[in-house]
Amino acid sequence: MPLSRRLSHWCDTQPEKPALRLGDVTLSYGALWESVARRHGALANLPRRARGHAAGQPLVALALGNHPMAPGWLALGLAAPVTLALIDPAWPEALQEDMIGALAPDLVITPENAGFGLEHPPQALPETQTEQPFFIGFTSGTTSRPKAFLRDRLSWSLSLAEGRAVFGLETASDTLAPGPLVHGLTFYALAETLDAGATFTGMPRFCASKAFDQLERGITRLVAVPTMLDALLREARHRGRTLPLTQITTAGAALSRSLLAQLPEAFPAARITEYYGASELGFVSLAHHTPSGDGKLYTGSRGVGRAFPGASIEIRKGGKPAPPDAIGTVFVKSPHPIAGYLMAEGEHAFIREGEWASVGDLGALDSEGHLTLAGRADGMVITGGYNVYPEEVASHLAQAPGVTEAVVLALPDAYLGERLVAVVSCAGDPPDLPAFCASRMARYKVPRAFFRLREWPLTSSGKIARATLARWLEKGDHRLERLA
Asked: Are residues 9 and 127 in the same domain?
């Protein structure tokens, strides 16, 4: 059943129940459906621009981030024949303008015009079709220009139907998802919460103390990246209290076994579900961890779990299926992968081979079908739940005045999963490198620390010895001068 029909059903059966909460905005299911119908009517009167993508229906570039009206716009894309392009406000302004210009939307929504269409008379919504596109997302790449991909309604319609059983969702599964709404984890949490007829709560910006307060007010489910779980664990210890959650869903970065073992201290009754996936692939694998009643978790999964329902996983080495426990490239076959990119510059790891697709991740399957990840063939790292290419950051740093060489490494971090550290060589005094980076890339891509090096360690072939640099950073070698 398409989400448009599910939302219509909840509007008819529970019109007064809160559907969305974010900041100072709360919408009941009845009010949400009316706002969708009003905006749909206003968009129907817009002149359409000629383009090859998202043709046949309005294309709206949504540059709202976690503005209180953003969930209502996202619900419009889920329920009406409209395509939304999710523009990240964390991007530099020039990049936002560049991507909007390339997409040629019919309308751009910013905080200044977020109320567009709400004064228009409601217009009945036609039934959405599975082959229709409904959003354009972006994933990082080896160049500074993000890669745009198009999702059709079928992929999410199928995963929502499967997810209701997998995640145990029902009308009582009121959910807090405090992450960025342009992030797939949070946007999907909104979709699955509305699909289940529960209440979705977001936050303008994550704050562990404020999130803890929200979770004590009757919310039963949390959807968050591991760094947020760690912050809430520390908040629970500080307050000396636990949280009465029954469900936690986490993804976006590896959930360390150490953190997993400590989470019952804060969430003693919560079943924890972690999944592995990618923007291009959708769901790949799933692992459940259930409270055992003695302050610990029972887990029957290894690695990142088994294949998500409706998906098949294969490990390939040398173009052929690999034997159990052998490391190779992870391929997935499911209805969830994208067809390809709309816009992509430079090399990228996403490939399709018939019904199978891959983003170049390396892993192994054991004889029971448990998937263990071993790294990323294309060099992409995950820091704080975000996908980042260190080479992209280094290429920006190399353009800073006085910088003659730049290397960006990802080091293990208990909080972020991996943290970015930059090492540069300079002719004279370096500029304010954090400010330089922040002016050219999203905040989460800015390295956490900067070092200057007078002489680079080299390999036998004359290349920079990155492994040696990593060891120097870990040991605090005197040859590295920390920059303020």
From this structure: yes
